[in-house]
Each structure stands twice: as structure tokens, then as C-alpha cells.
Amino acid sequence: MKAKLHLQNVLSSILESKGWEWPEKAVLEPPRDKNFGDMSANIAMMLSKQAKMNPRAIAEEIKNELDNDPYIEKVDIAGPGFLNFTFSNSFWQNLIPEVLEKGADFGRSEIGKGIKVQVEYVSANPTGPLHIGHGRGAALGDCLVRILEFTGHDVEAEYYVNDAGRQMLILGNSIWVRLQQSEGRDVADPEDFYKGEYIIDIAKEVLALNPTILEMDEADSIAICRKYGMNQILEGIKKDLAAFDVRHDVWFSEASLVSVGKVEETFADLKARNMAYEKDGALWFKSTDLGDDKDRVLRKSNGDLTYFASDIAYHDDKYKRGFDKVVDIWGADHHGYIPRMQAAVEALGKKGQLEVILVQLVNLLRGGEQIAMSTRAGKFETLEDVVNEVGRDAARFMFLSRKSDSHLDFDLDLVKQKTMENPVYYVQYAHARICSVIRKATDEGIEVGTSDQNLLSNLNNTEELGLLKLLDQFNDVVESAGEYMSPHTISYYLRDLASALHRFYSMHHILSAEKEIIAARLLLLQAVAKTLANGLNLLGVSAPEKM
RNA sequence: GCGGCAGUAGCUCAGUUGGAUAGAGCAACGGCCUUCUAAGCCGUUGGCCGAGAGUUCGAAUCUUUCCUGCCGCACCA
User: Which helix (H) or strand (E) holds A84?
Assistant: First the structure.
């Protein structure tokens, strides 16, 4: 980040002095291959058209201007006009005071300042316990919230509770049926029916709390079952999420939209904009005008609202609450729903302010064998069970180590293993190792010096500089993870940083060197540990001091 | 049929905002513990980036046609 900023400043002033415009698509980045220096830029190629010179000549001119820069030690021109920059060791060494001073704030950025974002995630129907698929959405959403916050956004995390509609009726009915069966009534299982064990447990509780329920009017009985069941299940969900360290600031009820007439308000709004019309006794949304395959029903001919209707009202409400940007995290099986939702957002006049992130399915395996899951059939491994079995850290890291839109195999046996197939330990181990060295140094009465230039100039070998260069990239990694909504890049970065640390550790015996070198190395280690901890914290994974 | 996502090393995946010689880990093979945590390190082997065509100085990345896999296509939520 520092290297990038410095380069950007220097280059843009050179370009300005030559009368060239900064090419929009110019890329300044650390090259993949270390032979190409610390940073590379492809601007010479991009400039060749406007400057009417060949890239090589442009590169030469820029190189000449840079010869006296205090931080840039070397400029190489490679291939068709790549400029490769090598920074001086002192430039990198100076990073350490910054990291240590910022501490837990190292890596924080202001790019999201003043932007109010809402992230809505999990939002599972309260009809059964959370399963592993919800866990992935939970880990992703929570991590995004942390990242967005760390990059300066004003973030609110929300859970949309689908407490209206058909699934709730089925839930109530399922409990009622079980309750009657448990009292010996001969009632057949209906077609739409939640079959899980937990329904039977809830039915027992309902009966215990309402001894006269069997004598009541059936509609009242079912209503009692529904209400109690939903509350119990929702409490369970909240408990599971809390155990997984997942934060929601607002629990938003779907039913509340209907009861305060928000949906009707939104209908009126859409009609006024000529985006809704009556046909065949139903109310339709003209989504075809905005890129959807077909128009969608808002109010059914029987008078009931569709899920879509309340969802539009819900999003309308989000924007009315003042969010500049809304992020929805959905299961990938909802992808067909995106065009109509985007159309709805556009119809509300908020085009481009909704971002939908899809979370692909999780295949839960045990020793390579797939475990079948279905809420309806009542067959699943709950999130709670999985977290209890493999631990929060391992589960979260596994969920966040893949792009969210690709399938994830989650093998319980594998995630429990403490091997490299399970990188959470690798990263945590790096942190614990550093803490261990620092403990040892303290025990031996070795002083950790203050980070002045003289002391830090002892950090000169490849491994030490390599670590410093990685530290410099942390800001960038965090910012782009936020910008592209891709938390997994942080996991990959942490693996790289841990790898560089392990390499350093095994190649240089830290505590057996000259006094000044040890002191400087301890400062470096502190900076690395801080960065590892900050990164892990963004993933919601702990950074243990001992393992 | 229409649409979405995917196809990269034996396996699991990064890289996809056009950039240089396509990267990790696991597995395989060979080394490294009388010193700070071997949950570690070093090295070797391993690639028609699904196939073809196109766009350009340059394509794993963009366009297009195929092939294969998963998913979705309700007046369900």
C-alpha cells in the first residue's frame, strides 16, 4: 500500500510534467515473480498511443526521472515496456513503526467513509434449525460485515424473518398433527409437512403449556402451535448464530410489513410509476420492462400476497431507512430470483444499489461419504452439531476459504484433522509461534527495543524483507476483499503470510544472533503477529497465543 | 428448451478488473529436530488452463460455437 501510493504519486507527477494523462487502466502491483522487483507498472504500454512514442522510449524517459527518488533503488525496463521498481530496504523497514503504532487498526481504511451499507444474511425460515448451508452464508455475511466496517463503511447486519406466509402455516400444522398423534389421535401426516424430530419436541412443549389445547377450536390450536413453534425455533437460531460468533443488529419481521400496510404503500407506488397492473384477478409487476423473462404476480387472485410482493416492500423499506447500498446474501438456488428483484429495485428508483451474493451449496461429507440433507424430511446435520464437532475456527475458515459462488465440500473428518489440508491451523500456528518466541525472549530478559531506524536497518535478509513486503499488501487485500465482496482472498493472503513466517522461522534462529538483530527481529515478529491477528479477526477466527 | 454457475497438475482449489515464464496445498519421491512450537522447513516430479474459432502488441481472463457437470425456471418461500 505504501509502496503503491508512493509510486502512484511519483509517477503521476512525472506524467503531469510531460503532459501525459494517467491511463485509466494502468496497473500498479507487486509482480507475481520476485525477479521483477517489488512493484511493476504497465503504464508505458498504455501511454504509447497518446504520447505517440514506442513503449520502450517512454519507459526510458520515466526511468530517467526516477533516478533520484530516495526510496526507489532500482528501475528496470522489461519486455514491451514494463517498468519494474525495486524499493530500498529502509523503505520496507519503516513499515514496522507504522504497524506497531496502529496495532489493531493496522489495515483499516477509509474508502467506505460515509457509505451506509446493509448486509442481510442467513434469513432462514424459522421452520427448523440452521444447517451447514446456512453456516456458510452466516460465515460469509459476518465476515463481509467485518470487512466493510474495517474499510470505513457504516454497516448494519440484518436477518429477515419470514414469519408470514405458507411455510409458517405448514409449520403450525405440522406441530398440531404431531401433538394430536402423541395423544393417540389417528391423524395422517399431511402432504406438506415438516418431519423432523424437533417438531415432536415442540409439540410436547406446546401441550405441556396448553393442557386444554385438544379441546379448543382447531384454528386456535394451530395458531398456538405456529406461534410457539416459530418463537422456539427462532430462539434456537439466535443461539446457534451467537455460538458461531455471528452478528445481526436487526431482526426484521416480514409480518410487520403487512400489518403496517407497507406492502399496499409499495403497490400504490408501483402503480403510480405504471409498473403494476391488474389481470385475471391478480396484481402483476411489469418486470419484463426491466429485463425479467416474464411479469410476476404480486397479489394472487385469491387475495393473498406473494413472497415477492412483501420482498419488494421490504427492499423499499431498506432504502427508506437510508442505506446507500444493500447487500443480500442468498442460497444459490435462488439465483432465478435475481432478475425480478433487480427489476423491482430499479422500479423503486434504486438501480445499482442492490448487490446479491450467491452462496453455493455445501456438500457435507464424512470420510468422503456424502451426508444427505433436507429440512422437510428432517434429515440434516445442524450447524450447532457441526460447530460442536469441528470447532468454530475450523468451520469458519473452511467456509471462507473458497469463492462463495463455487461448491464447497465440507468433510467433517478432514476439517477436524490438524494437517495442512486444514489451513486454519497453519495460520494460527504462525501466530502462536511468534507469541512463543516473544515469551521466550521475555523470559530470558531480552529487551524488545524501540523501533528506530538504526535498529531496523538490521532487517536485511530475503526472508525478513519478504515478510515486510507482505505486510505492506495487507491494506490492499482488505480493500479489494471489500470492493469485490470476496473474503476468501483474505484467507489466501493469511496463508501466504504464515508461510513466509514459517520459512523465516526455520531459516533463521531468531534468538541466537547479535543483540541488535534480535531486537529488530522481535519488532518484526510483533508486526507480523499483529497483521495475522487483524486478518484472522476479519474472518472471525481466533489468533491463539499458544497451541 | 430457456437461464445461472462451473470445467486450471493425480486430488482440492487460487489466479478471471486483458499483461511478463499459469500458482498454492495435498498426494508421490528425497532431505532437515543436542538451540525459539516438526501442526513446521527445503528440494524434485507433475499443465494442449474442457475443445474449436475470433478480437489485439498481448487471452486461463473478452466475444462466439460446441462438449461435460451442478442448479434454477410457481398466482412456493
Answer: strand A82-87
